[in-house]
Amino acid sequence: MPTDELTRFLAALSPANRQKVEQQPQEQQEKLAAAWEAELREDRDLDTLSELSPHAAEDEAAERIVRELL
Questions:
Q1: At 70, is the secondary structure helix, strand, or coil?
Q2: Region Disordered: start and end of each range (predicted)?
Q3: What is the pTM of this model?
Q4: Quick one: CA dihedral 32, 36, 39, 41, positive or negative?
């Protein structure tokens, strides 16, 4: 059963990257989602973007995580 964090992470991904993540084991998916949450909290550039568009900030952070960790 996916966590709420994982559901939000998957929703923020492009269809191609969502498919890549969904092919990973559940534990890996949850680690990626946790890394995404950390990226949202810690990246100051995303803070500025999230003030303008929270959805765009979530999308950008999700795509970064997949590029960096997969």
A1: coil
A2: 11-32
A3: 0.81
A4: negative
Return left, alpha or beta for 56; rule: phi > 0 is left, psi -120 to 50 is alpha, else beta.
alpha
User: Any idea where the domains of the chain sit in the sequence?
Assistant: 2-6+26-69
In 46-68, which positions are buried (b, 16+ CB within 10 angstroms) versus exposed (e)? beebbeeeeeebbbbbbeebbee
Give yes or no for a contact between 41 and 65, defined as CB atoms under 8 angstroms apart.
no
pLDDT digits (tens, 9 = 90+) for 17-55: 999 999 999 999 999 999 999 988 887 776 555 566 778
Instruction: Report the alpha-carbon distance of residue 38 to residue 33 in Å, rounded.
Output: 9
